[in-house]
Amino acid sequence: MIRFVVPLIAIVLFFLEPVFGLFSPIELYGEYRFLVPRFLIMYLIFISIYYSRNVAMIYGLVFGLLYDVTYIDIIGLYSFLYPLICLIASFIVRYIHQHLLVTTTLSLLLVALLEFVLYQFFLLIGLTDMSMSNFVYGKLIPTMIANSIFLIMLGWAFKYLINARFIQRLNQPS
Amino acid sequence: MPQFFSNKRLIMLLVGVIFLVALISFSLRDRDHASLPEQFIKDVVGFGQSIFSKPTQYITGVFENVDSLLNTYDENKRLKSRLEEFAKLQADVNVLTLENSTLREIVDKEENLRKYEPIQATVIARNPDQWEEKVVLDKGTIHGVEVNMAVMTSQGLIGKVFLTTSFTSTVELLSTQNPNYRVSAMVTVDGEKKVFGLIEGYDDERNELILKRIDSNIEIKAGQKVMSSGLGGIFPEGLYIGEITEVTTDDFGLTKMAYIKPAADFALLDHVMVAKRSMPSASGIDGEVIVEEEEEKEEDPS
Q1: For residue B56, which of A26, A36, A18, A19 has the smallest C-alpha distance?
Q2: Minimal Cα–Cα distance from A154 to chain B, Å?
């Protein structure tokens, strides 16, 4: 049963992201603030930390490809960045303590990294001309706040579920 | 220091990176045409997406209802004060429409740039990373949506269709940064003269559209209304875009430039209309029209 819950949550998060995207941008103090939902990649980082790096990278590749084809129309962007972020997460986690608070912070930092890399990419191909300060105040910080609220609310549930699956896999060697 | 990459892995990584760069540059080249597998994936994901977005829209609808209920008193007061004005306007419009149709009958001209068939659609997703201003609708080519059609809400124009599949379509909003995005617009001065210009670009800091290439001999003022002109070949005429807030000269001082406050709100979109023009429309994107016509000419003699 729990075997199917892990991918099912990934699918639900994948579909929820654009729905939450509809609420953005919000106008605050006379300026638009963009809230970018990054639920799926945070979940994949958790899988990469608590379960298996390879599973996370395969999920990253599949969902990244779907994301590229449906929303971005640039194939290869997210399907490269998602597995890369999972890989970085699995490298870093060897040197730090696996407490929930630490992994939450790590996930948020990696989301910030992802956002920054994407900013540089879109700047490079000329699809945006947002200035650096505009990016930080109008996009990066609101995004980080929104995603941290999400992760603080649901991070423990992710950890619990993924751990349950991990233990189940240990108990029944294939 | 442990070795992160063995030789085999390093080579795989390099091959992967090269493959990806090739893929990115390939897909960047023609982003406005979806290949068959892409269309299939878009349709399937779009179907799943509409399952998720419909309940969400119901919930936000409930919240909006509660919100508008709280404002009822103020709104009612304001609306009552405008009611009288509205009745007069309505009478005027009725007379004018009648007069227009009789005059049209006299000169025997049935077709009109203003006429369009609305296709009702629901927004099922917004491009979640928001680097580009795009939304996905739940209507596609099967329902009659075609590339470059105008999309609007009840408040005004919001964008045009950028890409279609059988069951979904992607709309690029007016607030895009795309330099090739233009909308032919007009301003009616004193109710008798039409002034034409092009909407080119969006000012990020003011959150306003920029109307360029206006004849510098003509006086236009802040507060005048801007509509689509229908001369771009695809849009119907008279879709409301917004109101002028400031008029300046452009970078070279040859033509005038105006900032327009868009009438429609680009955030929290839910129900939109795709305007299918009744008059025959020009096909293709900028620059492509000529090529297609030439091809037809070549075919004709043979």
Answers
A1: A19
A2: 19
CA distance B267 to B269: 6
B182 sits in which H/E element: strand B182-189
Taking each helix axis as running N to C, give the angle between helix A78-92 and helix B7-29, from 0 to 180 degrees, rounded to the nearest 10: 150
ipTM of the complex, rounded to two decimals: 0.79
Q: Indicate whether B291 pLDDT > 50.
A: no
The HSE-up count of residue B78 (CA atoms within 13 Å, CB side) is 5
**Better pLDDT: A85 or B33:** A85
Alpha-carbon distance A165 to nearest alpha carbon in chain B (angstroms): 26
User: How many C-alpha atoms does B66 have within 13 Å on its Cβ side?
Assistant: 5
> What residues of B are in contact with residue A19 (Cβ under 8 Å)?
49, 52-53, 56, 125
Q: Which residues pair with B275 in a beta bridge?
A: B118, B150
pTM, two decimal places: 0.79
DSSP state of B142: G
Sign of the alpha-carbon dihedral angle for B254, B260, B266, B272:
negative
Of A94, A90, A108, A115, nearest in space to A155 by CA: A108
Query: Of B46, B125, B134, which has the smallest distance from its Cβ to A19's Cβ?
Result: B125
Q: What are phi and psi of A64, to 5 degrees?
A: -60, -40
Count of other CB atoms within 10 angstroms of residue A78: 26
B128 vs A contacts (CB less than 8 Å): 17-18, 20-21, 36-37, 67, 71
Q: Which CATH superfamily is domain B111-278 in?
A: Rod shape-determining protein MreC, domain 2 (2.40.10.350)
Name the residue ranges covered by the structural domains of chain A.
2-9+38-164
d(CA A23, CA A136): 20
Chain A's closest residue to B131, CA to CA, is A128
Taking the CA of residue A74 and the nearest CA in chain B, the distance in Å comes to 5
Closest partner residue to A69 (CB to CB) among B17, B41, B125 is B41
**What integer pLDDT is reported at residue A114 of this predicted model?**
92
CB B170 within 8 A of CB B151: no
pLDDT tens digits, A109-133: 999 999 999 999 888 887 777 788 8
